[in-house]
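Case study.
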Amino acid sequence: MNYRISVLIVSLALVAGCSSVHTIDAQFPIPLVEPLPKSAFLSMPEEFQTYQFVQDEEDRADITIILGQAHSNLFNSVVSALFTNLTDAPETADITLMPELNAFQYALPKETGSNFFEVWMKYRLQATDAEGEEIADWLITGYGRAIDERFQSTGTGINGAAEEALRDIGTQLTLGFAQQEDIENWINSEVQQ
Amino acid sequence: MIRSVALVSTLCLLAGCSSVTVDQMRLTETNINLDSDTVVVLGRQHSPAYEAEGDLVTCVARELSQGAMGMEVIPDGLFVDALYPWFEPRTAPLSLARLETLLEQQILQQAIDNFEIRYIIWIEGNTETTDSSGGLSCTISPAGGGCLGLGMWEDESTYEASVWDFHEMRESGRISVDSHGTSYLPAVIIPFPLLARVQTNSCKGLGKQIQSFIVQG
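After joint prediction, the assembly is written out as follows.
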């Protein structure tokens, strides 16, 4: 009897489709750049550090992607390389950086007909000076893809694509930070003082 | 004769059928000290059309490190992470001129020097399924389950490796490999896959050829 019930449950699950939860598990290297001689505070509220993307559109399978830890790791790695000192309090920092996830999208190979899992992310990065005055407000869009290997799970594919997208965000943040006009003006004004 | 043909056909069916063609173009002489020089194998990722699979890159690196002509190969992940974000899909140098420009940054030059790299080997290409036919159906019921049918598909792979001499700052040559094969999936209750190892065969062909290309000069 128990056997029949188990088979029935498995069959129903297969017919109805299952919701799944994927945790993005990623560590990021410290970028290889000359740091700015400034101190920085990285403001990442609890909501950002525990962020979960929930996919509940009717025509797609329910998927929850836990991103909070991974993107917190990324911003910690990048900001610690961009400045000589990363402080624990905004009062002691020359600049405060506040990342915020504005958009997250993913596509599965079966949806696009391609051979890739794909992820797009858009972050807004606000920067304020020691007095709390806005220095810059910057949008960064990252893209990552992972090849759909035969017999690979959806979770592994999404994890690979999301990790690549986060690395892409880190690349643009690292190489583009000092090139942002507002940031460049702030650096120059600090040098003059 | 008939027995030989039957034997080859049977083996072919058991392992799936595949064939491999390797070509080489030498531009300059190569010279490596197997005791002190290292190489790194990296996959091109700037376009989905050329993106080599991670396991193919790892497999070629493993082939290069094996045998009497085996050389020290820096793991691609270690190299790319140590130089982050300069070898990412968006930033990796597509030409030696661009690499030379990047190396004007002392911090980057120093990081690469630490690896004692002699050759950087870039791989691009992919393996894809070009055709499939047959059918397989599986059922599950309270009384049990099973599959019945025959599925088959054809895989083709094309890869090209470009060998950059990091000391001389010039391209040493290019090696390409083409491979194709047919895999079968017969099933009578239980599926019994007979896979043509197209990507693996490409990896072995490419790896061995790059190794002899570099060591034998």
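Observations recorded in class. The first strand of chain A starts at residue 20 and ends at 23. The mean pLDDT of chain A is 89. We will return to this complex in the next lecture.
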